[in-house]
User: Which sequence fits this backbone?
């Protein structure tokens, strides 16, 4: 009888911890916005050159090559709704 009660208690504690862990998750990252940069001249072959262009001339946070296009990125604010 005591063994059954201990097993039931373990199951209840496990379920509680599983549910409680979902409540403790905090989102720490914002949304990332992307913009294909049409001002970047030529085919994008260097992610470093694309990132430098996005940061220096466009005022964005970073950039990368996506296919042959330069894509700029930045952290966006979450929508307020």
Assistant:
């Amino acid at each position: 009888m005591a063994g059954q009660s201990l097993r039931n208690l373990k199951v209840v504690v496990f379920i509680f911890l599983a549910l409680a862990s979902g409540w403790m998750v905090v989102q720490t990252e914002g949304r990332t916005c992307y913009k294909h940069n049409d001002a970047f001249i030529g085919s994008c072959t260097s992610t470093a050159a694309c990132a430098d262009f996005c940061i220096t001339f466009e005022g964005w946070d970073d950039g990368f090559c996506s296919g042959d296009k330069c894509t700029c990125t930045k952290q966006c604010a979450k929508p307020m709704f």
About this structure: The first helix runs from residue 2 to 23. Residues 35-81 form a domain with the Defensin A-like fold (CATH 3.30.30.10). The CA atoms of residues 14 and 20 lie 10 Å apart.
